[in-house]
Amino acid sequence: MPPADSAGVERPESDAILRLDFNPPETRVPGFEIIDLATLHERRRSRRRRPDLVHRVDFHTLTLITEGSGEHAVDFVTYPCRPGTLLWVRPGQVQSFVRPGTADGTHLLFTPAFPPHTSSADRLVNEWYGPACRQLGASPAYAVLSALLGQLRAEYGRPEGAVSAEILQLLLATVLLQIDRLPHADGGADPYAGGEVYARFRAELERSYAATRRAADYAHRLGYTVKTLTRACTAATGQPVKQVIDGRVALEAQRLLAHTDEPVATIARRLGFPEPTNFGKFFTRHTGVTPGAFRQTHQNQQ
């Protein structure tokens, strides 16, 4: 097995996108690590890894930029990184340090199982969606998060055997809840407006998007009507349920086309399209370009 990169071990993924498991070089607290972003990049350089390596992770990463500048891409959106930038990359998302530049800050890594399940922060960890980037600048929110991350670093840096996992869990829960307080980045859709119905639907969608794109199937599995799902999706996203389903499938198609060399027909079957022509029509309808054109554009950029 290849050596660990950052907090991860390379694991071959069925979709051919490199996936990193949580496995830090030094395990002080299971399921948790906090380091400088510069340390992460140094680990990569020592292993002769490309700084812009495209990969997924099986854990959460929170990064608060405190100095310098750079760029980070998450699922086809490139975010400028500068002091006050907060990045939250969730399990399964595809990311790349497009231009690490001089950006440095606190890099927090934790598994979905690490935060306390008795806290409402557990809800935030189990959701795969949410803003990947916030620009906090020198706001009071930045000061609060910076102070909390400082407390996390102080606890994590205590002598071996003196580190309290419980204190780290509670501090992490506080960090997540503080982030949840931040205004929505786009000032628009609120994923929590759909309530429990939307939360359950998104969890089922993440499990089943490659198996079915029929809204009626999701309604049947969850015990709701299609109308109820549409109402929840519209409240949370401004889009009807079928559009949310198709959007999730289209996102995965874009990931596979851009970041793997799998034939289009293979990707089509993986996403539940027996006929590549139907997949091509679906993809073009949702993105405005053919699968081949999309792949060529994005792979030429890498």
Features:
single chain, 18% strand, five-stranded antiparallel sheet, 302 residues, 44% helix, alpha+beta, disordered N terminus
Give an account of the 3D structure.
This protein is of the alpha+beta class and 302 residues long. The protein has eleven helices and eleven strands. The chain is globular, with a radius of gyration of 20 Å. 44% of the residues lie in helices and 18% in strands. The strands form two sheets. The chain has a six-stranded mixed β-sheet, with no helix packed on it. The protein starts with 7 loop residues before the first strand and ends with a helix. The longest helix has 19 residues, at 241-259.
Helix content: 40-55%
Strand order of the largest sheet: 1-2-4-9-6-7
Sheet/helix structural class: alpha+beta
State which percent range the strand residues make up.
15-25%
Helix and strand run: EEEHEEEEEEEHEHHHHHHHHH
Overall average pLDDT? 86
Large-scale geometry = globular
Helix count from the secondary structure assignment = 11
List unreliable stretches of 5+ residues: 1-7, 9-15
Radius of gyration: 20 Å
Total DSSP E strands: 11
| Largest sheet, strands/sense/barrel | 6 strands, mixed
Distance N terminus to C terminus?
25 Å
